[in-house]
Amino acid sequence: MSATQGGTAGTGDAKAPRGRTRWGVVKAILSLPAPAVGAFLVMMAVWVLVS
CA 25 to CA 28: how far, in whole Å? Predict the structure, then answer.
């Protein structure tokens, strides 16, 4: 019976890091385009000012 309880506790413990990992992946995916968008806006501003 303790093995069943330990298995259940282990499953609960394993879910927390997976959740954190998913949020880490979501943050990484959302933060990746930010520098690209910034660079694009800077390039557009330079293009408008030069032309």
Answer: 5
Give the structural domain span for 28: 2-50
Dihedrals phi, psi of 10, to nearest 5 degrees: -65, -40
How many domains is the chain built from? 1
Kindly state the greatest CA–CA separation across the chain.
Answer: 77
Task: Write out pLDDT tens, residues 3-47.
Answer: 555 555 555 555 555 556 788 888 887 887 888 888 999 999 999
Q: Is 1 helix (H, G, I), strand (E, B) or coil?
A: coil
Q: Determine the Cα–Cα distance for residues 1 and 7; give it in Å rounded to an integer.
A: 10
CB burial string 6-25: b at 16+ within 10 A, e below: eeeeeeeeeeeeeeeeeeee
